[in-house]
Specification:
The complex is a heterodimer of chains A (305) and B (308). Chain A is mostly helical. Chain A contains 13 helices and two strands. Chain A is flat, with a radius of gyration of 25 Å. In chain B, helix 5 (88-119) packs parallel to helix 8 (170-194). Classes of the chains: A mainly alpha (305), B mainly alpha (308). The interface between A and B is large, with 122 and 122 residues.
């Protein structure tokens, strides 16, 4: 990143060359964050890619084994495909149910109902809780013996094991995660809806559009920046999901996720760092696809500014 | 409620306060909407209220009658026990030792980057912005392995870390939080700074202000609302972070409160009501922050998304 000026520099006096002191300030205060970001984020990302082609227990020597980790991952690692499936389900659940529901609530509240402030605060409250706590609360409510739901169902003889049954537990956990996601999406869309020029809606109404048409054809498309951010958050949340399953049962028995498998391979007893990195790379490739899409959108937005 | 969000960027959007007035005729006959929103709100609050309710009742009672029964005894006893038996005070202190420096340093570094990117018109500014923003979006597990290895290799003198390595010290968690959260703050602050009038800066430059003065004396004071919003949000996020400490800290006495929850569960496993009390205690600070600083909290999240 060169400390030079855009071409129009010569035109105005304010864009004269930086003094030496300015250059030092810029060098230090841009240098530290850039180095930090490289050391903490981008360097380790590249290192993960490199390590994924090796076998290493973290202590002994590192062996280059090419694509073996990936082959093993696909063929001889039973939890891998379930984890992929669970991550995809998580993404679909957030994307097709939780996110649209958040948008729906935002639209309802934005239409100017009374007590909207109250609704807004209540619906948003779960967002401030850590997913670990959400996991504990889920256990309280979905517990087998005295859990609230089973008490309501009054099924003492044949209680449903909401969190233990591997066909059910993922859904329960996704609902719990959705509980948090809905509020987040809602707040973003509320801000987005406020930013929509009311004249657009009036113009659409004058042209004879009904409320639904106005929303889908006029309002929703103009919220594009928010849509992009909500999309990215939804995807990233789905790929990052970890805390809540780890708090419930360390991500076993039907709750396997890619993030859990990575963690298990690094800090678990086996300490298979190369192998854990290969899973991390899978996660990286998927998320990079979405990140790049987001950045392209942002770039386009920045050009318009 | 409208004011709620509009306070985030007063500079940017001064001319829309007429909007709500147009909506009032439709307000009648909206019972359906109210009933629906009430029901959803209740469903959203219920889990929290149930956790509080459970924590107030003795285990024998709920074990016998279930969590939805009418209470016979209510007491705060479990809170006292959850706090003292688990040594929670220590974990809260640990969290503060991590979160306070992390938030301050993140905001300082991020605001300068945002300033350079959005106000100085450096060539490559956009690239720099992307570089930071994208980093924040990576899943944490992608970077965790090499950092784990790296921190094990970095030695620190004993006065900095009693484990003599970066691993198992607060430094590791603090620096990772800074590096990881910077991206989001740069993104939000750059968007916010773009909405500030450029003329102020130009006037300062004519007066001979250097880059540091332009940043520290001119731009930063105008960013107070954005900084307050981000500080609130970042504090909550770092407080709620679970993974970093789980991986980079091995001594259970050094864990921050959220990560220590897992250990608390070990101590509490026989008694879910005690666990509920523990969870409520851990959640309390973030809920208080939210209720008291709601405006900032929401502003922090929405600043980045609506171009200021």
């Amino acid at each position: 990143m060169a400390l030079t000026f855009p071409r129009r520099a010569g035109r105005r006096r304010r864009l004269r060359r930086f003094t030496r002191r300015d250059a030092v300030v810029l060098g230090v205060l841009l240098g530290i964050p850039i180095l930090l970001d490289i050391a903490i984020v981008w360097g380790p990302t590249l290192a993960s890619i490199g390590l994924s082609f090796t076998a290493w227990d973290g202590i002994g020597s590192i062996h280059w084994i090419g694509l073996d980790n990936y082959k093993n991952l696909a063929d001889n690692y039973p939890p891998f495909w379930p984890a992929v499936r669970h991550n995809i389900m998580w993404l679909l659940f957030l994307g097709l149910i939780a996110t649209p529901f958040g948008l729906f609530l935002a639209v309802l509240i934005d239409r100017g109902v009374r007590f909207s402030r109250f609704y807004q605060s209540v619906l948003y409250m779960p967002v401030v809780l850590s997913l670990a706590i959400v996991g504990f609360i889920a256990q309280l409510i979905l517990g087998t013996d005295q859990g609230v739901i089973n008490t309501i169902l009054n099924n003492h003889d044949d209680p449903i094991d909401w969190l233990g049954n591997s066909h059910l537990n993922l859904w329960m956990i996704m609902i719990a995660a959705g509980w948090r996601h809905v509020g987040y999406v809602m707040i973003l869309y509320l801000a987005g809806l406020k930013a929509v020029d009311p004249q657009l809606k009036e113009a659409a109404a004058i042209d004879g559009a009904n409320e639904r048409q106005t929303f889908f054809r006029v309002v929703f498309p103009t919220m594009r920046p928010v849509n992009v951010i909500v999309g990215v958050i939804t995807v990233i949340e789905a790929l990052r999901a970890f805390d809540i399953v780890y708090a419930v049962n360390k991500g076993r028995n039907g709750l396997e996720l890619l993030s859990v498998l990575i963690t298990e391979n690094i800090i678990g007893e086996a300490s298979r760092i190369g192998f854990g990195s290969a899973i991390a790379v899978v996660l990286l490739v998927v998320s990079l696809g979405f990140i790049v899409t987001f950045l392209v959108q942002e770039l386009r937005g920045a050009r318009e500014r | 409620m409208t004011a709620d969000i509009r306070t985030t960027a007063p500079v940017h959007r001064p001319a829309t306060p007429a909007a709500p007035a147009a909506k009032s005729p439709r307000r009648r006959g909206r019972w359906g909407v109210h009933i629906f929103l009430m029901a959803v709100s209740l469903a959203f609050l219920a889990p929290l209220l149930l956790a509080v309710y459970a924590s107030l009742r003795p285990y024998q009672e709920t074990a016998q009658h279930g969590y939805l029964s009418w209470p016979k005894h209510l007491s705060l006893d479990y809170y006292r026990r959850a706090y003292t038996e688990s040594g929670m005070g220590k974990y809260f202190t640990n969290t503060l030792m991590i979160a306070v420096p992390a938030v301050l340093v993140t905001l300082f570094l991020a605001s300068f980057v945002a300033f350079a990117v959005s106000r100085l018109r450096l060539r490559g500014g956009i690239v720099l912005l992307m570089f930071f923003t994208a980093g924040n979006l990576l899943p944490q597990q992608v970077i965790v392995t090499p950092l784990y290895v790296l921190f094990n290799k970095i030695t620190l003198p004993w006065w900095m870390s009693d484990s003599l390595t970066m691993y198992d010290s607060y430094w590791a968690v603090i620096i990772v939080n800074i590096g990881f959260q910077m991206g989001f703050c740069v993104f939000v602050l750059a968007n916010f700074m773009r909405t500030l009038p450029q003329e102020i800066l130009e006037a300062a430059i004519v007066d001979g202000a250097g880059v540091w003065t332009q940043f520290w004396r001119i731009t930063l004071p105008l960013c107070r609302p954005a900084l307050a919003a981000l500080a609130t949000l970042e504090f909550t996020w770092i407080y709620n972070d679970f993974l970093w400490a789980l991986i980079f800290i091995s001594n259970p006495d050094k864990l921050p409160i959220t990560s220590s929850l897992n250990n608390l569960r070990g101590q509490f496993f026989t008694d879910y009501n005690l666990l509920a009390a523990g969870s409520v205690l851990v959640a309390l600070p973030t809920i208080l922050v939210f209720l008291l600083l709601q405006r900032h909290f929401i502003a922090g999240l929405t600043l980045g998304s609506t171009k200021g």
